[in-house]
Task: inverse folding
């Protein structure tokens, strides 16, 4: 069974924020796995110095940063696990010790962020790669996740969700979508409604697939628990042309 690793960036019902300069990173925090994780999102490539946790102070030092920091493969996003954040906002001070990939030091800067408590992040079906979630600003979500082909039962994936009773109307702007394996045409991400976190439960998915591969929006449904998926769509193409404004709505 081929394992898939997908990187997804979502801006949920909003436009993406753009940093003004190399000295102006954006930030937001997510709570998942019992841990608060602050993301520092640089608009330029940074080197390993960006992962040094002592370059950062949160809320004047009243928030504890739990080492180590993590620099993601994009060389722009740093994840800091922290404890002691009170409320839904925080302030971060970045020292002048962070260097770009061309070894230019970035000036010290103060940034302000918020904590997104609206989503719960969960791995479904024990994927071989544990999911990583991060946010670069309000209403934005990034996921790095692994899994298996959608036709398989049970599911393997990372799911960012909110529990809903009754009718709903959700939309998301996919700003980027990529696969670790360029040959994986069907790496995908999007919106999903499911009965529970049981990997075999009834599920409806509206998915955009690898823009360098299948390059289509597809609708997939598992109508009965434990059954395989059926595809009910016309496989609308053109994801590569739509990014960073591939909107999907359920």
Result:
């Amino acid at each position: 069974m081929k394992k898939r690793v997908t990187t997804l960036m979502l801006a949920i019902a909003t436009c993406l924020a753009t940093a003004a300069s190399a000295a102006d990173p954006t930030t937001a925090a997510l709570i998942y796995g019992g841990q608060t994780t602050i993301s520092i999102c640089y608009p330029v490539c940074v080197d390993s110095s960006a992962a040094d946790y002592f370059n950062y102070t949160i809320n004047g030092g009243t928030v504890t940063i739990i080492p180590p920091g993590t620099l993601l493969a994009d060389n722009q996003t740093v994840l800091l696990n922290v404890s002691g954040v009170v409320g839904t906002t925080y302030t971060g001070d970045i020292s002048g010790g962070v260097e770009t990939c061309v070894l230019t030091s970035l000036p010290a800067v103060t940034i302000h962020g918020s904590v997104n408590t609206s989503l719960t992040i969960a791995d479904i079906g024990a994927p071989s790669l544990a999911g990583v979630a991060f946010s670069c600003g309000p209403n934005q979500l990034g996921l790095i996740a692994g899994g298996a082909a959608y036709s398989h039962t049970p599911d393997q994936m990372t799911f960012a969700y909110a529990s809903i009773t009754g009718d709903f109307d959700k939309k998301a702007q996919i700003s980027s979508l990529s696969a670790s394996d360029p040959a994986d045409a069907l790496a995908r991400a999007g919106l999903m409604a499911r009965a529970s976190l049981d990997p075999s439960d009834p599920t409806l998915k509206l998915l955009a697939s690898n823009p360098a591969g299948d390059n289509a929006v597809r609708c997939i449904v598992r109508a009965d628990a434990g059954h395989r998926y059926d595809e009910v769509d016309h496989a609308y193409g053109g994801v590569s042309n739509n990014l960073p404004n591939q909107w999907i709505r359920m």
About this structure: The longest strand covers residues 171-179. The two ends are 29 Å apart (CA to CA).
